[in-house]
Amino acid sequence: MAWRMIGGSHGYATRQEMFAHESIDTIKDWIKEADPYHDAENSEEYWDRLDKGFKMIGELDGAENILLVTHGFTIRSIWYRYGDNIPLVPGPQNASITLMTMDEKGNIKIPFWNEMSL
């Protein structure tokens, strides 16, 4: 129901249709527009929050390996921003593994995604 409220006014009946044809940042902006409680973030607010977290991780002393557990929308967002043409549809499988690497300068890459084992 919520996805119809978000995408319906833009011609989409399902979230899969939106993910197949729109940027995830556009979808974030539409989510904010459709939020009746005005709690949702647009793409700029969303990335500002995540970038602060990634910066904090990069500044941790001695932290070489970090497990980041999150939901599918954030995983898709990370794929979209840092992956090399990773398809957003069908999206991450439940309990799948995406490897995100960050170098000393804060550059982020996605070596693999949506794997069910290491």
Topology:
Elements: H1 2-7, H2 15-21, H3 24-34, H4 43-59, H5 72-82, E1 97-102, E2 108-115
Pfam families: His_Phos_1 (PF00300)
Protein name: Phosphoglycerate mutase
Provide a brief overview of the structure:
44% of the residues lie in helices and 12% in strands.
Task: Describe the protein's architecture and organization.
- The chain is of the alpha+beta class and 118 residues long.
- The relative contact order is 0.12.
- Helices cover 44% and strands 12% of the residues.
- A two-stranded antiparallel sheet has the order 1-2.
- It has a single domain (2-115), classed as Phosphoglycerate mutase-like (Rossmann fold).
- It is globular and about 45 Å long.
- The model has no long low-confidence stretch (mean pLDDT 94).
- The N and C termini lie far apart (35 Å).
- Strand 1 and strand 2 (108-115) form a beta hairpin.
- It has 5 helices and 2 strands; from the N terminus they run H-H-H-H-H-E-E.
Order of helices and strands: HHHHHEE
Could you tell me how far the N terminus lies from the C terminus, measured between alpha carbons in angstroms?
35 Å
Q: Profile the largest sheet.
A: 2 strands, antiparallel
Q: Percent helix among the residues?
A: 40-55%
Provide mean pLDDT, rounded. Answer: 94
Structural class: alpha+beta
Strand content: 5-15%
Gyration radius (Cα, Å) is 15 Å
